[in-house]
Each structure stands twice: as C-alpha cells, then as structure tokens.
C-alpha cells in the first residue's frame, strides 16, 4: 500500500536580508496573530503544525488545568490581596498538602473522596493546620467554580469543621471574663486581654497598635485600626497592609478600656501600646512568653517526661483549682477553662450580638469583609439560646389552632 503523501499548502513568500522565506500566520492562545517563517514549504508546514499543537495545548490547559496549575494561578491572584508572609504560608501549605497528593489531576477530575483522602494525613496534625488547609482547598475550588473551570464543585460535601475531635472554642462567659481579668491583673498580658475583650481587635492589630491611633480625650473615645503586626524569622514587622479592606476601621471603646489605656499611657515609653523593654513591638517568641502567664495559671493537664532505666516515661499531671504551683508558690491555678487570644475577639463579637447590636454594625466593628462570617456567629448566638426563641415560637402559634 502506497504511503499517503503529505499535502503541503501553498505559502506566500517574503524576502528578508536578501533571503527568500515562506511565511504564514496563525492565532496564538491569546487571540493575537503571529508570523511563522521557513526557507522551505515543508519546514514551514512542520513549524505550523507544531505551533498549532502548542496553542491547542495551552488553550486546553487553560480550560482544563491540573490542580497544580490552578493552585499556582490562585496564588497569583491572592498576591495582590494578602501580605507576603501570608502568601508564603498559603504557598507552603498548598504545596505540601494539596499539590503533592492531587497536583497531577485535572481540576474537573477531582472528587469529594479525593479531597477527603488528601485531608486524612492532616487529621493527625494540629487542628489549626487542618482547618487552614481545608479552607485553602475550598477557596481554590470555589474560585475555579466561579470562573467556570468546574461544572461541579467537589468541596460541597466537605465539612468545615476541624479534622480532630475537640471542644469548640466558645465565647467566654461573664464569670470567666471576671476570673481571667482578676488572674492577670498586674501581669504582662493584662492590657492585651483588655484590648481583645473590649475592642475585638485581632492579635496582629493589637500588637501593631500605636498611641497615635488611640483617641482617649475625644467625646467618644475610640481606636483606629491602621497597622498590622507579623513576624519574619521571629522579628516583628509592622505594616499598613491590613488583612482586608474591612479591617481598616474606627472602634468606639467603653470606659473600662479607656481607663486601662489611660493608665498604661502614663507609664509608656514607646510609640506602641504593647511593647518590649526597649519600646519595640513584640517578637513572636516574646508574645508566646507573655501568653504563658495565662497558660501556667490554668488547670489544663501537663505532660512531663522522665527517664527511668534509660527509657523516657510520659507523665500527665492535672493541677487542682485553687492550688499553687509546687516550685513557684506565687503562681496559683485559678483558670479551670481554656482561653486563647482569638477567644477574646470572639467574646467581644458575641457580647455585641447578645446586646442586640445589629449584625451589619457588628460586621463593621469586627472588621469582617464577608458578612457570612458575622452571620454565622450571629446564627450560633441567637439560635443556641432557647430562651431567646421561646417568645418567637409562642407568637408564631399564638392562635393555638387545633387540628
């Protein structure tokens, strides 16, 4: 059987520097016209076929990107919104926990089970890391769905809850707040805790707060959020780039916080409201040491390791409420509940909602860019209190119609 001869199209010619070339034009992946040249029709035809295959491949990958390709695109979009340190964290987490297990798959091929399997190894790590990666996966796939890269979003069946069983962080009760403040009164974390409880600032906003943004002598005293704190290699970096546009806000503050700040200002020798002994913002390790004043006074179980006959033996000790620490009698165990820096902010938001402040105002005061974040907290606060719903249910059925 005779081999079919390749049909070579007829091309126009052009002379460049005394040499005759055959020329054709094709559209690239961006819709722009590009010219191809060769000294023979056969070579130009081969070049044209190769270029067209490359264009088709680029267009295919744009419409059908792999997980790795779309993650790279998503990170590029985020680079205009988030700080450099946040972007580095996103990049590392996506690379280690999303691209490694799923990177070679096309986005449209990924199933809910694939995502669940990718999250399995993270269930053995910290709850914070699990939640961060879970959030990143959802952001990537929801962005792909909005941009019509996907017809079906596999994240719809993925829970937003932590991967490890544990107690949910709830707002502190009034009694717990009173115990906490009594415990840390006169200690380094006191001012930080007051700011968290009564202004709702994020940790990075509190540690970046300077006195030029504290207005105590106004008819309505308030704080202005204009800076954010982060660390690079444990060193503090203060930036005017906030978490979101909504984070830039002015927050009226109650008298108890005004009095606390006024007292702190009289002894301050720094531009920063919370500073180290040199007047500089705290490093990451310094803040951890400050927060240890809270941790060591809680009845949270402690793990100790002792070497017995050459083996490391783990011991768990649970302090008793009201007792003092054996080696440091000045430290008394007064906190029978866990408390984190973010819980202070959550308590502030919850108390606003308990007080009947409308969710839109709470959204502004909290600096939430997405109203869904505020409404989720609002729903949990409102609908987890049966006493709040009793009157609503009764009024809905006040006619008492019998069937």
UniProtKB/TrEMBL annotation:
Domain of life per record: Bacteria
Domain Core-binding (CB): 65-145
This protein's record includes keyword DNA-binding: yes
GO terms, molecular function: DNA binding
Coiled-coil regions listed: none
Pfam families cross-referenced by the UniProt entry: Phage_int_SAM_3 (PF14659), Phage_integrase (PF00589)
Tyr recombinase domain span: 167-394
Keyword set, alphabetical order: DNA integration, DNA recombination, DNA-binding
GO terms of biological process kind: DNA integration; DNA recombination
Matches recorded under Gene3D superfamilies: 1.10.150.130, Intergrase catalytic core
Record keyword Glycoprotein present: no
Entry function: Site-specific tyrosine recombinase, which acts by catalyzing the cutting and rejoining of the recombining DNA molecules.
Record protein name field: Integrase
Protein species of origin: Catenibacillus scindens
């Amino acid at each position: 059987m005779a081999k079919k001869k390749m049909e070579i199209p007829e091309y126009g010619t052009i002379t460049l520097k005394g040499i005759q070339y055959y020329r054709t034009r094709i559209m690239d992946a961006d819709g722009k016209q590009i010219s191809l040249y060769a000294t023979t029709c056969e070579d130009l035809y081969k070049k044209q076929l190769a270029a067209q295959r490359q264009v088709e491949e680029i267009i295919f990958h744009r419409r059908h990107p792999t997980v790795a390709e779309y993650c790279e695109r998503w990170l590029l979009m985020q680079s205009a919104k988030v700080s450099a340190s946040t972007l580095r964290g996103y990049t590392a987490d996506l690379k280690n926990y999303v691209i490694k297990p799923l990177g070679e798959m096309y986005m449209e091929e990924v199933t809910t089970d694939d995502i669940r399997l990718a999250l399995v190894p993270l269930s053995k790590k910290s709850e914070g890391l699990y939640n961060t990666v879970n959030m990143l996966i959802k952001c990537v796939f929801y962005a792909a769905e909005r941009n019509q890269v996907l017809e079906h979003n596999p994240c719809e069946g993925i829970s937003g809850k932590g991967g490890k069983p544990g107690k949910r962080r709830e707002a502190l009760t009034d009694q717990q707040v009173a115990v906490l403040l009594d415990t840390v009164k006169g200690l380094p974390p006191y001012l930080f805790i007051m700011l968290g409880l009564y202004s709702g600032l994020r940790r990075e906003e509190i540690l970046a707060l300077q006195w030029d943004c504290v207005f105590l002598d106004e008819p309505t005293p308030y704080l202005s959020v204009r800076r954010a704190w982060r660390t690079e290699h444990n060193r503090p970096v203060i930036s005017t780039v906030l978490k979101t546009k909504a984070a830039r806000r002015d927050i009226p503050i109650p008298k108890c916080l005004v009095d606390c700040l006024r007292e702190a200002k009289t002894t301050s020798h720094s531009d920063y409201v919370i500073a180290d002994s040199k007047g500089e913002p705290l490093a990451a390790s310094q803040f951890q040491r400050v927060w240890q004043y809270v941790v060591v006074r809680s009845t949270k179980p402690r793990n100790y390791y002792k070497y017995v006959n050459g083996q490391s033996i783990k011991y768990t000790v649970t302090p008793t409420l009201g007792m003092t620490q054996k080696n440091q009698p000045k430290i008394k165990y007064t906190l029978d509940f866990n408390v984190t820096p973010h819980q202070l902010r959550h308590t502030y938001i919850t108390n606003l909602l308990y007080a009947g402040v409308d969710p839109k105002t709470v959204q502004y005061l909290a600096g939430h860019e997405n109203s869904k974040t505020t409404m989720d907290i609002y729903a949990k606060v409102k609908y987890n209190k049966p006493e709040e719903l009793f009157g609503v249910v009764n009024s809905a059925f006040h006619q008492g119609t019998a069937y």
